[in-house]
Design brief:
- It is a single chain.
- By secondary structure, the chain is an all-alpha fold.
- It folds into two domains: about 35-95, no CATH class; about 160-370, MetI-like (MetI-like fold).
- The chain is built from 13 helices and two strands; from the N terminus they run H-H-H-H-E-E-H-H-H-H-H-H-H-H-H.
- The chain has a two-stranded antiparallel sheet with strand order 1-2.
- The relative contact order is 0.09.
Length: about 375
């Protein structure tokens, strides 16, 4: 018995004591392990849609150079080669076509006209600055003679430049897009939540969705002329309202349809939970419906903005809103030897701005979607 007791004591003594946590292995208080900068940078580039720079960042960190060079060639090299081939074909094709105004302009002529438009903008800005300086000097002289004189500054009424027309077009398309979003998203939510509302509006949506802006614009023009009277204190010109409302009528349908599809495809378990918790309609929409349907809503917004930008050019041509559409129409009516090249400048400007608007919407979609914007 004594031997067994001694043996058990030896066994107990031989068992190693549990390891105490080493102070070196414990994380320091208040410090969180951060994601490496290179990974955060690649995520940010992907979020912004600048994917061709991701292989460059990975090459800088020494990550599989062969694979990164291959990826860089696919994301940057191949598109640049395609652009180069396009410019060669354009130069060759332009020299083969004769019009009443001469040959179709090639890349050098279009670039020269672009530089000319920028020079005109700079010259017009100098005229505007000189105009305001003369007014300031005149007002100071009048105030020196008569301290009670109320100085007035008249706006510069010079010809809008090419950059001014770009700003006008962007302002107009965003106004129409905002109006379309305000109408389409709530209607889409109602259509997605209620089968009755969806059935009531479905036929109307399918009828009005394919209507051309050229058909909407005369109706919009007559309604605006009847209801909106302009004066010196008016906030908006009729041409602006005609263009913005036409953009709204043509661009709201993709957002409305995608919002309805997104809401109707929400998992029924989530909506049932909302009913069990007796959530109000507004709380259900903000806490369940919108977060779950956000990806499809943003898809609709992207499509709507693209449609609105295309529609705007035609609307500005007819409504004479001083934007890119009016610029193209004026150059076409002008019929000078420079007109074709300037129209080509506008074509590339419209395309590049449309591409940038789509990238912006795609970035916003990633930011507001779950798990996409983690940096």
């Amino acid at each position: 018995m004594n031997d067994m007791t001694a043996t058990s004591k030896n066994v107990v003594a031989a068992e190693p004591a549990p390891d105490k946590p080493s102070r070196k292995t414990l994380p320091e208080h208040g410090k969180v392990e951060r994601t490496p900068f290179s990974i955060r940078l690649t995520r940010m580039l992907g979020l912004l849609g600048i994917n061709f720079l991701i292989p460059v960042v990975k090459l800088a960190t020494g990550e599989s150079p062969r694979a990164q060079f291959k990826e860089l060639w696919m994301t940057l090299g191949v598109p640049l080669v395609a652009v180069f081939v396009f410019l060669i074909l354009w130069s060759w094709g332009a020299s083969q076509v004769e019009t009443s105004l001469g040959q179709i302009p090639g890349p050098p002529q279009v670039w020269d006209e672009f530089q000319g438009l920028m020079a005109e903008h700079a010259a017009e800005r100098e005229k505007a600055d000189a105009f305001y300086e003369r007014q300031i000097a005149r007002n100071e002289q009048r105030l020196a003679i008569d301290p009670t004189y109320e100085a007035k500054t008249r706006p510069y009424t010079g010809k809008p430049t090419y950059l001014d027309q770009i700003v006008t077009s962007l302002y107009t398309v965003f106004a129409g897009f905002l109006l379309a979003t305000i109408i389409a998203v709530p209607l889409g939510i109602l259509c997605g939540l209620s089968r009755t509302i969806n059935s009531a509006l479905s036929l109307l949506i399918q009828i009005f969705k394919p209507v051309s802006p050229l058909a909407w614009l005369p109706i919009v023009t007559m309604v605006v002329s009847a209801l909106y009277v302009t004066s010196d204190d008016s906030w908006f010109d009729k041409s602006f309202l005609n263009s913005a409302l036409t953009v709204m009528l043509c661009s709201l349908w993709p957002t409305l349809i995608n919002t309805a599809v997104g809401v109707s495809s929400i998992d029924k378990d989530l909506t049932n939970v909302g009913r069990v918790l007796n959530l109000g309609f507004t709380t259900q929409v903000t806490k369940i419906v919108l977060p779950c349907s956000l990806p499809l809503i943003f898809t609709g917004l992207r499509l709507s903005l693209g449609v609105g930008w295309m529609v705007l050019i035609a609307a500005e041509m007819l409504a004479q809103n001083p934007g890119l559409g009016k610029f193209v129409w004026d150059e076409f009516q002008n019929g000078s030897s420079q007109s074709l090249a300037r129209i080509m400048v506008a074509v590339f400007t419209i395309g590049i701005i449309g591409f940038l608007l789509d990238r912006i919407m795609l970035t916003l979609q990633k930011i507001f979607s779950f798990g996409e914007a983690r940096l």
